[in-house]
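Protocol step 4 of 6.
Sequence for PPM-type phosphatase domain-containing protein (Streptomyces malaysiensis) entered exactly as in the expression construct, tag removed. Do not edit the line below.
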Amino acid sequence: MIHRFTAPTAQVRVDHHSAVHLAAETAREVARECELPGALPDQAAVIASELATNLDKYASDGTLYVQPLPLGRGVEILAADRGPGMRDPERCLADGYTTAGTLGVGLGAVKRMATHFTIRSTGGADAGTWACARLTAPGEQRPEWQGVGAVCLPAEGEESCGDARAIVDTDAARTAAVLDGLGHGRPAAEAAQAALRTFHADPDRPLPEVLNRMNRALRHTRGAAVGLLRLRADHADYCGIGNIRALALTPDGVQHRLTGQPGIVGWGMPTPRVHGFPLPQGATAVLHSDGIDARWALDPPPSVLRLPPPLLSAALAHGHRRVRDDATVLAARSPLRLP
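Step 5 output, structure tokens:
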């Protein structure tokens, strides 16, 4: 059984050149917390510095998101902005390519140092660039781990995050959870973390049983909204209480939209029900709390629908977050097929 995710995502807004240093130090600290050996924390700092420098020089409304890997041991550094976009992202990865009269080694260096690097960009009305650099410990790399992404952010002005997220791979399936403690701040965080501990205690149980266990564990807390998602080879099961949304995306559009049953986990929770839906080849399942504006799914641009899960989570958190609320988005594909 393999799982990760504990602390919220660290966020660095790149609105001034001084943010480049902060991005580097944040990535180094997270890498050390992930117990990456040797020079890897310093490499994480260089990757973050290069991505932040690109945002500072070329982008509008750029932000770096730094966190432990969803699965495996390592650090993930996500970059997102609102344009103007890159006409040829692959060309920009070549050493020596520059549009600013510099040495032009930034993105090329990131690609060389990262265990895995993905970048997508679009122009026009939906302009933006999204990048994901992952740096792993030796032996901590599997193809199916690329099919997961998540971002979890506290409300602006809050030190504690009332949301949490988790993903677990077992031999039978991939199971994901998004948890939203009622309200904000420390009491909400305590409820979400209690639900998280219960989930990790036995995540392979039938989804209604997992929710019933959470309901008992949260009786002396504020309670929470919970969404559980189990992905298999060609379908997914959703079981949720409260306003946690589940969707299935393909390059053709949003195929399914589900919301949890009315109620609160920990306070008179109704009997949980499971809703199944097909998950065709290449489809991505998404869970998100109500800190992500649900209107994003009414008519998402094709460029967003085609994003791999790590970039999709960054794009939704960056572009559709409600800053006055805790916000979490988790995107995943079935582990029984390569992403």
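Step 6, annotate. The longest strand covers residues 128-136.
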